[in-house]
Automatic annotation (TrEMBL):
<feature type="active site" description="Proton acceptor">
    <location>
        <position position="187"/>
    </location>
</feature>
<feature type="short sequence motif" description="DGA/G">
    <location>
        <begin position="187"/>
        <end position="189"/>
    </location>
</feature>
<dbReference type="Pfam" id="PF01734">
    <property type="entry name" value="Patatin"/>
</dbReference>
<dbReference type="InterPro" id="IPR002641">
    <property type="entry name" value="PNPLA_dom"/>
</dbReference>
<dbReference type="InterPro" id="IPR016035">
    <property type="entry name" value="Acyl_Trfase/lysoPLipase"/>
</dbReference>
<feature type="short sequence motif" description="GXGXXG">
    <location>
        <begin position="14"/>
        <end position="19"/>
    </location>
</feature>
<feature type="domain" description="PNPLA">
    <location>
        <begin position="10"/>
        <end position="200"/>
    </location>
</feature>
<protein>
    <recommendedName>
        <fullName>PNPLA domain-containing protein</fullName>
    </recommendedName>
</protein>
<keyword id="KW-0442">Lipid degradation</keyword>
<feature type="active site" description="Nucleophile">
    <location>
        <position position="44"/>
    </location>
</feature>
<dbReference type="InterPro" id="IPR050301">
    <property type="entry name" value="NTE"/>
</dbReference>
<keyword id="KW-0443">Lipid metabolism</keyword>
<keyword id="KW-0378">Hydrolase</keyword>
Length: 334
């Protein structure tokens, strides 16, 4: 008799179209069947993956989740084609650094005064947010950044809406701030990519799998303007996660070295930490490629993510429910 699937919490990073790598990771985990998503904390593209997975899960379990994820990314590619200029192959991506630089000298309030957003149309058409708000099988935590306070805002439960997900993915040079209850919000990657702390206070699984799509390490010194900006963005969007992992490592050390009183220990969770990292798979892709929504590119990232998940299942699944498969201090902080 097959052993029952083990529930894990998922932490999904953002990173534009590189989120298709996470799609692949999720697709392989769902196909394998030995892991069940027990909670998801996510930001930006990770939040898109989170709501697509959960929506499909409500319809038809694992198969529904896989179908929903594919439908979402297929629509991203289809809609994106209308915004890609008719240029010879590769020309669009070569020009993206210039478009990116231009966007930093202009405002989305000037360039897009009507605030048109194809992502909103996709989410409205494909995701039933009313069902997501009442379901409790997969608690969702979506992070955005409050513009006025500079703090992370985590949307969960009844606050999971189209606007919450759009706010989580709102790059301020590209899109107008998303207003929710009178407050403007920008991309959650600035303050939580993704936020881990909600999992320490909620009734969620004791194992946490972090799916990285922003490389933590890159050899050498970037020297071109594009490479410099790319690395600045990676460091910026990893900073909040690294800070939280530092806190996690500190708590784990206190617990494991028995340095806490029983009352204090009871209030803290010693989560088992696991990770799938895209450092190797995405090391040769520039920041401009985060705007590439061609189906060939997206499915290539999906396939890379699927292989990474299969490798992780082969080497680390045995540790689920028992211990961490990464050494947080050694792998992230040293």
């Amino acid at each position: 008799m097959a052993k029952p699937a083990r529930a894990v919490s998922l932490a999904l990073q953002g990173g534009g179209s590189h989120g298709a790598y996470t799609w692949g990771v999720l697709d392989a985990l769902l196909e394998d069947g030995r892991i069940t998503p027990g909670a998801i904390t996510a930001t930006s593209a990770g939040a898109m993956n989170a709501v697509a997975l959960t929506h499909g899960w409500l319809d038809d379990g694992r198969d529904g989740a896989r179908a929903s994820l594919e439908a979402f990314w297929h629509e991203v590619s289809r809609r994106g084609a209308a915004f890609r200029p008719m240029m010879p192959g590769g020309t669009f991506l070569k020009l993206m650094p210039f478009f990116d630089a231009f966007s930093r000298l202009t405002s989305p309030y000037d360039l897009n005064p009507y605030n048109l957003d194809p992502l909103k149309d996709i989410l409205d058409a494909q995701i039933d947010f009313e069902r997501l708000r009442v379901q409790t099988g997969i608690p969702l935590f979506v992070t955005a950044t409050c513009v006025t306070t500079g703090r992370a805002e985590v949307f969960t439960g009844q606050r999971i809406t189209t606007d919450a997900v759009l706010a989580s993915a709102c790059l301020p040079f590209i899109r107008q701030a998303v207003e929710i209850d009178g407050e403007p919000y920008w991309d959650g990657g600035f303050t939580g990519n993704p936020a881990l702390w909600p999992l320490f206070y909620a009734d969620t699984p004791g194992d946490l799998l972090i799916v990285h799509i922003n490389p933590l390490k890159r050899p050498g010194t970037p020297k071109s303007a594009d490479d410099i900006m790319n690395r600045v963005n990676e460091i910026t969007f990893n900073a909040s996660l690294m800070a939280e992992l530092r806190a996690v490592a500190f708590v784990k050390r206190l617990i494991e070295d028995d340095l806490l009183k029983d009352a204090e220990k009871a209030r803290l969770r010693n989560l088992h930490i696991h990770a799938v990292r895209a450092d190797e798979a995405l090391k040769d892709y520039s920041a401009a490629s985060k705007y590439d929504t061609s189906w060939r590119f997206l499915t290539g990232l999906r396939d890379a993510g699927r292989q990474a998940a299969k490798d992780w299942l082969r080497t680390c699944h045995q540790h689920i429910g028992k211990r961490s498969s990464v050494d947080v201090r050694a792998d992230y902080l040293q």
